Amino acid sequence: MFLAGLGMTAWGYATGAYADTAWTGSIGAGGVWKPDYLGSDDYEFRGFPNLTLQAKGVGYLSLKDGIGTYLTESDHWQTSIFLTYLFGRDNTGDLSDFEEVDGGIAGGLRLGYNQGAWQHNLSIKAPIGGDLEGYRVDVSTRWKTALSQRWSFFIQPGIGYADKQWNQAYFDVSAEDSAASGVRAYRVSDGSWDAHFTTGVNFQITKEWRLSMAGRVSRLTGDAEDSPIVDELGDATQGSLMIGTAYSF
Questions:
Q1: Digit-coded pLDDT (tens) for 109-152
Q2: Is residue 3 very low, low, confident or very high in pLDDT (cuts 50, 70, 90)?
Q3: How high does pLDDT run on average in the chain?
């Protein structure tokens, strides 16, 4: 109930209470080459839309970060509550005989600190619906610099922690899944850490249009890494490549 109330507060503040506030943002599209499930060693290409809106002192709306409202905001610090959508697992390929994991809405708290070229972020979120339960914490640091008048470059390392219930949704192999697929049954018994590193470049085509390209490598650990859908069918180390374009307004 707390998270549902949190989400309604975020929606009301970000869209209703400040309807006359000036919003800025960007809209675009792109594509990503990534594993077909978390822990897979099979890759697929998927297109995606891109939409970001934000208003200083009010909140933000993003297909990546969800909808949120600022609790506090200064030149360097931002604290917000948010709602976002968590994707489940559409089982294809190696997991075609598994029961699907339904995604759902999650609510959470986000803390950000900006200082010059550095941007630090911490978020904690918990599911409200779907097959997911538990919570997840993510911490990342981003450094960005201009290479020329049109080109910029960034790096972003990060770590995450998912508790036992969160991991069970993604990495358990139930008795039914085992019987249908021949993969040994498995039950996650603890939470686990993961780490990732992202780097990329942005090219400013015009004042409004930009082209972005990025690569990411990530690593699962603990009970997530030991799951047979990772250890036997997939790979704990995964990569992805993204390209996209956006129009800013």
A1: 999 999 999 999 999 999 998 999 999 999 999 999 999 999 99
A2: very low
A3: 92
Alpha carbon 188 to chain centroid, angstroms: 22
* Residue 145 C-beta-side C-alpha neighbours within 13 Å: 3
Q: Which residues of 25-39 are buried (b: 16+ CB within 10 A; e: fewer)?
A: bbebebebebbbbbb
The three-class DSSP label of residue 117 is: coil
Give the type of residue at 137: V
CA–CA gap between residue 169 and residue 64 (Å, rounded): 21
CB atoms under 10 Å from CB of 136, counted, come to: 21
- Average pLDDT on 198-222 reads 98
Give the confidence band of 201 by pLDDT, cuts at 50, 70, 90. Answer: very high
The gap from C-alpha 228 to its chain's centroid, in whole angstroms, comes to: 24
At 233, the amino acid letter reads L
**pLDDT at residue number 92:** 86
Query: The whole model's pTM is what?
Result: 0.88
HEC states along 171-209? HCECHHHHHHHCCCCECCCCCEEEEEEEEEEEEECCCCE
Q: 206 Cβ partners below 8 Å, 6+ apart? A: none
d(CA 167, CA 49): 28
Domains in the chain, CATH or no CATH each: 2-19+26-248 (2.40.160.40)
The reported pLDDT for the residue numbered 20 is: 63
